[in-house]
Automatic annotation (TrEMBL):
Stabilizing subunit of the glycosylphosphatidylinositol-mannosyltransferase I complex which catalyzes the transfer of the first mannose, via an alpha-1,4 bond from a dolichol-phosphate-mannose (Dol-P-Man) to the glucosaminyl acyl phosphatidylinositol (GlcN-(acyl)PI) intermediate to generate alpha-D-Man-(1->4)-alpha-D-GlcN-(1->6)-(1-radyl,2-acyl-sn-glycero-3-phospho)-2-acyl-inositol and participates in the sixth step of the glycosylphosphatidylinositol-anchor biosynthesis. Probably acts by stabilizing the mannosyltransferase PIGM. One of its GO terms (cellular component) is endoplasmic reticulum membrane. It is a single-pass membrane protein. This is Phosphatidylinositol-glycan biosynthesis class X protein.
Length: 220
């Protein structure tokens, strides 16, 4: 049981996440407002990406080279062509930048992509649920309240530019949105026969045109 005065001392940390843009290629924006002074600390959001969403490691590397984002992805080798039903969860540690307008506010954005899903029966959409991130702090030169923060099991450096691991801490936060829902368009199973027939017809027609052009203009 936590004493009342300790509960009052541990001010709420609020985290929000938004999926910007439309279609299969989106931007994930994470905003955090801390309930504790984080000067001298690194602030990050640990995000679990379900199989329906992925982050392209090559795109991430390019963004980091241009200092547009800082993140660590687990695993760092990803099949970007795999459909949702052959993919697995990913863990993203997204380093947040301070907001100049708010001393306790931090934010960061990263591009994410939606995977193709299996055709479904009776529905044209599949739902991908993105849970609220976990807020982490790494304070190498200051101390956090033991009543409010606890060590987190995160084996990663304090920044994407550092190779040595440090101790991260986590706290329970108050999410403005508990989870984000992403609606992904999918094919209808009842259209399978029609799609297969049209695909076969188109393939045969194009192959015939290519063969006719090769016979007419080719040199054998």
């Amino acid at each position: 049981c936590v004493p009342i005065d300790v509960q009052a001392a541990c001010r709420d940390t609020t985290v929000t996440q938004e999926l910007l843009k439309e279609g299969f290629h989106r931007d994930l924006l994470v905003k955090v407002e801390l309930g504790e002074d984080a000067r001298g600390c690194a602030v990050a959001a640990q995000i679990r990406l379900p199989p329906g969403i992925y982050l392209d490691p090559y795109e991430l590397a390019t963004l980091q080279q241009h200092n547009l984002t800082k993140a660590v992805l687990f695993p760092d080798v990803i099949d970007v062509e795999a459909p949702e039903y052959l993919a697995r969860d990913l863990l993203l540690l997204l380093f947040l930048q301070p907001d100049a307008r708010c001393s306790s506010c931090f934010h960061a954005a990263v591009p994410v992509h939606t995977r193709y899903h299996r055709p479904a029966n009776g529905t044209e959409e599949a739902l991908v649920v993105l849970e609220s991130p976990e807020v982490l702090l790494c304070c190498c030169h200051s101390h956090l309240s033991a009543e409010c923060w606890e060590p987190a099991e995160v084996d990663t450096p304090c920044s994407s530019d550092n190779t040595s691991s440090c101790q991260w801490h986590s706290t329970k936060h108050r999410p403005a949105y508990e989870e984000s829902m992403l609606r992904v368009p999918v094919g209808l199973r009842e259209h399978s026969s029609l799609v297969c027939a049209l695909t076969l017809l188109t393939t045969g027609l194009c192959s015939g045109l290519i063969l006719a052009a090769a016979c007419k203009y080719g040199h054998f």
